[in-house]
Amino acid sequence: MYKGLAITNKGLESFASDEIISLNKCKAEIRDNVVLFDSDFEGIARVCYRGQSINRVILLLSEFPVFQDMEKALEKIEVKTWKATSFMVECLRLGDHDFRSVDIASEITKKIADEYRKSKVDIKVDYDSPKLIYYVFINEDKGYLGIDFSGFDLSKRQYKVFNHPEALKGVTGYAAAKSIDLSEKKVIVDPFMGSGIILIEAALSLLNYPVQFYNKSKLAFTDFEEFKPDFFKREDAKIKDIKTNLYGYDCQFRHFQSAQKNAKLAGIDKSINLSKVEIEWLDTKFEKKTVDIILTDPPRSGKDRDQGILKKVYKELFYQADYILKKNGVVLVLAKEYDLLEENAKMHSFKLLEKNTIYQGQEIFNLLKFIRGKT
Known about the structure:
The chain is an alpha/beta fold and 375 residues long. The chain has two domains: 2-148, VC0802-like (2-Layer Sandwich); 170-209 and 220-372, Rossmann fold (3-Layer(aba) Sandwich), CATH 3.40.50.150. It is built from ten helices and 15 strands. Helix 9 (307-324) links the parallel strand 12 (291-296) and strand 13.
């Protein structure tokens, strides 16, 4: 049994924990930006292959305190060497420190090379195409060292080719989708789909479709001795062949096309419904009180966007929500600022029930859940 470590964005730890527990039926421990879990080799590989809320997955070898004097910290690192013909050390650092990531990577490279020499293992350092990556994650005063199962940033989606000026990262779209009671039977509508990120992530989750399906050969764990070639066959057999009730709309044809192409690249285009429709015509697409959830990332305020236009858009959003949503329907909005949204929600008797904060790099987003009711 090993210890797995999933690195995620701030605010997404609970989403990552829930996802890991669902995938592996294991216990998970939440810390800042990471989730720790007990697992065998295959369980760590599964989180790496399927995880939609995760940036990196490593097999944890050592935890260590981060001091200003990093020489003392390095002494506390326990190095366990894995078989390989070549290796390198990569370091990601969050927080303010008196040292650089490249310096830590260099020192740990020396330490690991010494351990291999002591064990009389013939291995070289290779920064171009290593067979093994030791990954160091330093977050403020906590340090983690492990074997990288990913080989690349898992938050960067291969399907995200046709972009949008305000496009979300896949992990952010996934968090938005999982903030609701996601179900294939529920009618879920995104009236501002942009390049389709939220709906694609929702569909991948509903279909049990591995987010790294088209990146199999790139995943680092496929080079390890413990990897069994039939792993992907067994995991892919879990994909569901279903039609969802996910509907996406955008007022601009180019964005509709982008979403359509991205959905095809993700492999789920036949399971969702996309078209070009302006928000004002949403009530022509659905009968009164037939939609369960409106899930969207609406236009945001900015220097090139008139506040009057934005207010009109938000007003129309809740006007349409009042018409198409069922009595207990929910409006889930992803937004940076929300005063104007809340103001227009009140005009149509919607109240803000819940607010959660998540991070996309340095950007802060609010997940806002509105329901019908007096404030």
